[in-house]
Amino acid sequence: MPEARPSLLGQSPEEIEALCLKLGAEKYRATQIVSAAYKQRSKTFDDIPALPKQLRNSLAQSHSLRLCRMAEVIRSADETRRFLIALPDDECVESVLIPDGGRLTLCLSTQVGCAMGCRFCASAQIGFKRNLNAGEMIEEIFLASELATSELGDSAELTNVVFMGTGEPLANYDQLSRALTAINAKWGLGIGARRITVSTIGLPAAMIRFAREFPQINIAVSLHAPDDATRNQIVPANIKTGIKAVLTAAKQCYETAHREVTIEYVLLEGVNSSRVDARKLASALRGLRVNVNLIPFNEAPALPFAAPPPAVISAFREELERRGLNVHIRRSRGSDIGAACGQLRLARSGQTTRDSGTESS
Ligand code: SF4
């Protein structure tokens, strides 16, 4: 398969200006290109009639605007839509669109597969294939917006973007950074920073860099365990890092960005969900400015985990709240279509024996 021409999506206006100059065109053409790419959502350079034909031809020889396509959509009874996006090299990633009251949230992926190996996650079963580039992440948003408009009506607009799909976003920092800049910028998609969340398994150095470079964007840390012994079992990446370093980085994120960090915690029956676990978690989080999201495991027969019964979940929550923590229980959305990260892609690849999972990084 011939290699795809690089996308202009994710390139800064300055980089596009430099490209225009290199191609013998005026610098101001970059503004027309950026506006066509993000506001009019042009798919090819021929869709930008304001550009001279010669420039359109030169751009088309060296670059692309849109390279990805919607390959499959699965609709849940609760209106969640899970979809598979085909990338130019025939790999694919999945995203999830979640309508909820007045909100329309897109959960997007940053890598094909994931190297972190979390035991409860379908994406880990795929293994790491490659990083997505910024253009591919932005196209996930474009394709989701088009799907929302066609199925929910012209007024359906994405309100929130969460980087919680397949992959560890901070392990793909440079492309993530380019995508976030374009998603947030006025010249780009103009989605407010506070409506964007990046979720990480906890890469301390990258977390601190992220808080410095994107202080307004929310960061969520997928902790999933109150101590190293438990976390090492379900989040193998922890063996190298350790909870202490992750929580120290979370503290530094708060001190740098002055924004509360969210702690994500998947509740697994008999693994991390007892009252003792809750007390240990509260103790580990003492002194940190955090919100805790509890996520009952999205069960599937092929993975050796189950969600705790409701009474256990309530007891866990009470223990945390009694110790002054702000706790939410996240409703499982799209569970009838296996909307946890990696499930659709895994099923498509034929590896159905371990077709399940819950939350990504
Ligand atoms: S939970 Fe997130 S970090 Fe862990 S394997 Fe899945 S995608 Fe990767």
Fold topology:
Layout: H1 13-22, H2 29-38, H3 53-62, E1 69-75, E2 81-86, E3 92-100, E4 103-107, E5 111-112, H4 122-126, E6 130-131, H5 134-152, E7 160-163, H6 173-184, E8 196-200, H7 204-213, E9 218-222, H8 228-234, H9 238-241, H10 243-257, E10 261-267, H11 275-284, E11 290-296, H12 310-322, E12 326-329, H13 343-348
Parallel strand pairs: 4-7, 7-8, 8-9, 9-10, 10-11, 11-12
Antiparallel strand pairs: 1-2, 2-3, 3-4, 5-6
Helix pairs in contact: 1-2, 5-6, 7-10, 11-12
Bound molecules: iron/sulfur cluster.
Residues 114, 116-118, 121, 123-124, 166-168, 201, 341, 360-361 line the site of iron/sulfur cluster.
Task: Give a short summary of the structure.
The chain is an alpha/beta fold and 361 residues long. The protein contains 13 helices and 12 strands.
Distance between the amino and carboxyl termini: 32 Å
Report on the biggest sheet.
Answer: 10 strands, mixed
Instruction: From the 3D structure, determine the CATH topology of the largest domain.
Output: TIM Barrel
The total strand number stands at 12
Helix share of residues? 25-40%
Identify the strand order in the major beta sheet: 1-2-3-4-7-8-9-10-11-12
User: What is the highest CATH level, the class of the largest domain?
Assistant: Alpha Beta
**Number of alpha- plus pi-helical segments:** 13
**Spatial extent as radius of gyration:** 21 Å
Q: Report the β-strand fraction as a percent range.
A: 15-25%
What is the CATH-assigned architecture of the largest domain? Alpha-Beta Barrel
Q: Uncertain segments of ≥5 residues (pLDDT<50)?
A: 350-360
Ligand names:
iron/sulfur cluster
Taken from the alpha-carbon principal axes, the silhouette is elongated
Count of discrete structural domains: 2
